[in-house]
Design goal:
TIM Barrel; eight-stranded parallel barrel; 13 helices; 12% strand; globular
């Protein structure tokens, strides 16, 4: 494997940093169940702390927009983050990412900021058919997933990420992104919570299809030299750690890991601290959010009821050495919200051990 042109943390550096050359051991780069700390990368110079703070690019550029992420990356770097997640929302944005001169400029920009792409993300509009009951649609979605892995590898990202798909037979009028349908106050047109589920749904086949396609996706990621982090959102086939662990028990490949979004989990009234302990040895990525007391809105960090200190302590307990990346819903002043969030987390990091 040739050295990535990105001057930040390369995939090879990511794997070498945990002292192992296999994907099985690479899981420890984020979860480190043995308690070993990842070696620091001189080129990245991220932090003396094994827990690192990052930001998703779509905090400053809409998910649908895709590349180029130039201004978003500059802003995130200026705020002091050294990890960024990049996302595509349409298959053709994969080609746009690699197109020149954009691609060379992107690698150069990341190198100048000493930033890493902590993971490369495929939005539901790219990967959603992995939840389809139609085998041909799943096959087509896997082909796009494979292309996404190729892009991630060229960017030097250690992992490919997606939110777990939901069965595409689940529908709600006016809700293209079904996970967003969760409360009477924010998204429901009437007094009853309801979305369309086929009569006499064969759940066992739905789950078996999901396991099969996740096995294939895991193999594709592995062949590309990547890890595969699957994220929890409501109404999906893996809405939380228990469903993910059931999936993992059937896939049984350490290439596959859990991407925990603490806000989307607490939205479902599950305490993120417990989820971290549940996924010890399988946790690959963490998204940071705050949430209001009614669990209806993702509010700016520090203004809700999220137990960030408990989250950090649990991550330290399991030996997690990956990124904790802020993912913030729209606020009047995104820059201030993330700056404040970074300050809060840095204070917690400084006082916890």
């Amino acid at each position: 494997m040739k050295k990535d042109r990105n001057e930040g943390l390369t995939r090879r550096g990511f794997l070498k940093g945990v002292g192992a050359g296999t994907l099985a051991a690479a899981t420890a780069a984020s979860a480190a169940p043995s308690g070993k700390k990842a070696k620091s990368q001189k080129s990245a110079d991220l932090s003396k702390d094994a827990l690192r703070l990052g930001s998703v690019s779509w905090n400053f550029r809409s998910i649908a927009a895709g590349p180029p992420w130039t201004e978003a990356i500059d802003t995130i770097a200026d705020l002091g983050f050294r990890g960024v997640e990049l996302i595509v929302a349409q298959p053709d944005q994969l080609d746009a990412t690699l197109a020149e001169p954009h691609f060379s400029g992107l690698l150069r920009q990341l190198g100048q900021h000493k930033m890493v792409v902590s993971q490369f993300v495929l939005f539901q509009t790219v990967s959603g058919d992995l939840g389809s009951p139609d085998a041909e649609k799943r096959k087509a979605a896997l082909a796009v997933f494979e292309k996404g892995c190729q892009v991630a590898a060229k960017l030097g990202a250690p992992m490919i990420n997606m939110v777990a798909p939901w069965p595409t037979v689940f529908r709600k009028k006016g809700q293209d992104y079904l996970p967003r349908y969760f409360s009477t106050e924010t998204t429901m047109p009437g007094p009853k919570f309801q979305y369309d589920v086929p009569r006499n749904l064969d759940w066992q086949k739905t789950w078996s299809d999901f396991v099969a396609v996740m096995k294939e996706a895991t193999g594709i990621a592995k062949a590309a030299g990547l890890l595969f982090s699957l994220e929890n959102h409501t109404h999906t086939l893996a809405p939380g750690p228990d469903a993910f662990l059931r999936l993992w028990d059937e896939v049984r490949d350490p290439t596959l890991g859990f991407a925990l979004d603490i806000g989307w989990l607490q939205l479902q009234r599950e305490y993120p601290v417990v989820a971290i302990y549940k996924t010890r040895g399988r946790l690959m990525n963490v998204h940071l959010r705050d949430i209001d007391g009614l669990a209806y809105r993702f509010v700016p960090p520090g203004s809700g009821c999220m137990d960030f200190e408990g989250v950090v302590r649990a991550l330290r307990d399991i030996g997690y050495t990956g990124f904790m990346s802020f993912e913030q819903d729209g606020v009047p002043d995104m820059r201030y919200a993330l700056s404040r969030g970074k300050q809060i987390l840095e204070e917690i990091l400084a006082k916890t051990s």
